[in-house]
Amino acid sequence: MEPVSSQPQKIAPRTNLWLESRYRKLKRGLPQTIFYCPKCKGDRRRRKQCKHCEGFGKLTKESVQELIGRRILPRMQAKTGKFHGAGREDIDVLMLGRGRPFVYEVVGARNPDVDLEELRREIEERAEGAIELDPFVRVRRERVVYWKNTHFDKIYRVGVEMTGEPDAAAIAAASTFAGVVVQRTPQRVAHRRADLDRERALEVLEVVTKGSAELEMRVKCQHGTYVKEWISGDDGRTVPSLSSLLGVPCRCAQLDVAEILTDDPATTA
Ligand SMILES: [Zn+2]
Known about the structure:
CATH architecture of the largest domain: 2-Layer Sandwich
Helix content: 10-25%
Low-confidence stretches: none
Mean pLDDT: 93
Number of domains: 2
Strand content: 25-35%
Order of helices and strands: EHEEHEEHEHEEEHEHE
Structural class: alpha+beta
CATH class of the largest domain: Alpha Beta
Bound molecules: zinc ion
């Protein structure tokens, strides 16, 4: 009988790696990162008694981060993953066009040499149309800082609901608006942001009327523009606003990011 070898199996060392890509989010209600319950913060012990999330610890089943990590982490035998997006959109906002750049940080991978293209296809397949990804590129950790500190203009696709019917001249004027908008800190974020005036460049690219009470627009905005407030006027805190240009109260019914106007493609490590 052969003696059983007492030699322990060699365990691969753990390494960290950074994968850059862009995501397109094609389903509403999907947050970018894990949406922890605000009451218990997802804490393992506290969430058991939490009525707000009924012990789930999160407010949505999935996020872009989880759809990606769920496939990457087991394949790379990694401990955990961190999601670094180049900004973020609200949970109900679609991310279209070329998508939003991000770096997925894989922490403690024992098996980092997997086929990234196969992995990407697997993520998309399991996401069932909720997200699409550009091919992953292995990058240096510095890319996380680059995307965090660099801001880009964006093109939004906006669905507008109007109360009342603006005249044709007003619609024509709004359709060609390009200029500076002064925005005082919106009421909805005033509790957590300093109350001050910001100047932002804004350009209307396209307006399509949909019946008498609806518009669909494409608007190019400098980074940091509060688009919803530009539409409503936020009780006179944003000047000029679409409401003031059209002479009727307007409301943002739907908002999507059509494009983030980034300047450079990913570079490999
Ligand atoms: Zn909770």
